[in-house]
Specification:
By secondary structure, the chain is of the alpha+beta class. It has a domain of 142 residues: 60s Ribosomal Protein L30, Chain: A. Helices cover 60% and strands 13% of the residues. It has a 5-stranded mixed sheet with strand order 1-2-5-3-4. Strand 3, helix 4 and strand 4 form a beta-alpha-beta unit. The longest helix has 107 residues.
């Protein structure tokens, strides 16, 4: 070994160094490839997270629009419910007021007619409307539409109460039994029922100053009986004139108007 020349030793050292460098280079190249692969994977993960984040932001924006629209819809629904509730409260108050008015009206009518036989005049409330039913034997002679003088006292008392309630309309209905009638003055039961109603309306207007705009005359003939026409008592019950005291129709329909619902 000692006799080896310097050039030979230098060459051997160079070969040894070159072999070590190759191993290091190979190792470094391997590590570099691994790092590059890791970097690529990390880049892919970053791209995925960016895409996911963008998608989430878009979804959140959509949800924001949906929530805003939903909130507006809910608000409108709540406003409509509030309007409907106010309408129901107002309607309930008005119905209670009307019921109270009917009760006061019935009491006044019964007090005014306290000296009249209950079989001849009946006062009641049906369907929220006040009915005064007067038998034909009190108002008219058999088969006639001319009012008896005694009946005018009853109509006068009714007119006093009616004139105290100017916000109410008066419908007068004539009713007969089913026994046919025909004479020189009356064609049939339709004719008789209408003429009797007209006589009452005319008396209320001309003698007791009930406004004619509030009055309506109607004939129902034999077709709305209260009792069985097969008995004399039943036929007597069916021969009647009904004075129906009602709210004015325009006020009644206005009472039933619901508030406009928001779209």
């Amino acid at each position: 070994m000692r006799k080896l020349s310097f050039p030979l030793m230098a060459m051997m050292l160079l070969l040894l160094t070159s072999s070590c460098n190759k191993k290091k280079i190979t190792t470094l190249e391997t590590e570099l490839a691994a790092k590059e692969k890791e970097v690529e994977q990390l880049k892919e993960q970053v791209d995925y997270l960016q895409n996911t984040s963008s998608s989430l932001l878009d979804q959140m924006a959509d949800l924001s629009v949906i929530n805003k629209t939903g909130a507006e819809s809910i608000k409108k629904s709540l406003d409509n419910i509030g309007q409907q509730y106010s309408f129901i409260q107002d309607l309930t108050t008005k119905i209670q007021s009307k019921d109270s008015l009917n009760l006061a009206l019935v009491m006044n009518l019964k007090r005014s007619l306290s000296n009249v036989n209950d079989e001849d005049v009946q006062v009641e409330v049906k369907g929220g409307v006040v009915y005064v039913s007067i038998s034909d034997k009190l108002l008219f002679q058999s088969g006639s539409s001319r009012i008896n003088s005694a009946a005018k006292q009853v109509l006068e008392k009714l007119a006093i109460v009616i004139n105290d309630h100017n916000d109410l309309n008066i419908l007068v209905e004539g009713h007969t039994d089913d026994v046919p009638i025909s004479n020189s003055c009356t064609q049939d039961n339709w004719d008789l029922s209408v003429k009797r109603a007209t006589s009452v309306v005319r008396t209320l207007q001309q003698d007791y100053y009930v406004s004619p705009e509030r009055l309506t005359a109607a004939g129902r003939s034999e077709y709305v009986p209260k009792a069985d026409n097969n008995t004399s008592d039943g036929r007597s019950t069916n021969r009647r004139t009904e004075i129906i005291i009602t709210p004015k129709l325009d006020q009644f329909f206005k009472l039933l108007e619901a508030p406009e619902v928001m779209n």
